[in-house]
């Protein structure tokens, strides 16, 4: 069996191909529309796992937000800086990133937590919840399931993935002081033979003022 790859290695290799396949997930577009309708101009937003900058950072910048994106992949950060010059992008890992004082008016997390161990997924959720300022929003998407250390082939790469069940995601966010306003699951079918259908969990939450 080929060596399992880290998230940085996978996304360095995928580059703009990731955007071609996953850049228009309907549930993600809907979540961004929901979020931008609630944020004032100048809102500070963190995009965790910012990828190429599209669609998340680009949509937020167009809405007048002050956007910071972080991603473990140097190649993705370079693409994002070129595609969305109105945002700031850093090569950083959600597990070790230090946010600025005061946190963010919104934190977006679209699929960045899968290529890690299950306890790290839980800890990353805790960290992102803590970065959401009072009155701020947390919007996320993932592939749900009580999964730990599952070896798969994804987009032509051997990776090991983990996740939490839908109920565990919702309970963990509530326990960390976020009110879950809406959640739903939807099946996404990428138009690429290297990626099969995926069940996506979308969750919209807010920290009380």
UniProtKB/TrEMBL annotation:
The keyword S-adenosyl-L-methionine applies. Keywords: Methyltransferase, S-adenosyl-L-methionine, Transferase. Pfam families: Methyltransf_25. One of its GO terms (molecular function) is methyltransferase activity. Residues 45-136 form the Methyltransferase domain. It comes from the Bacteria. Transmembrane segments: none annotated. One of its GO terms (biological process) is methylation. SUPFAM superfamilies: S-adenosyl-L-methionine-dependent methyltransferases. The keyword Protein biosynthesis does not apply. This is Methyltransferase domain-containing protein. It comes from Streptomyces yangpuensis. The lineage of its organism: Bacteria, Bacillati, Actinomycetota, Actinomycetes, Kitasatosporales.
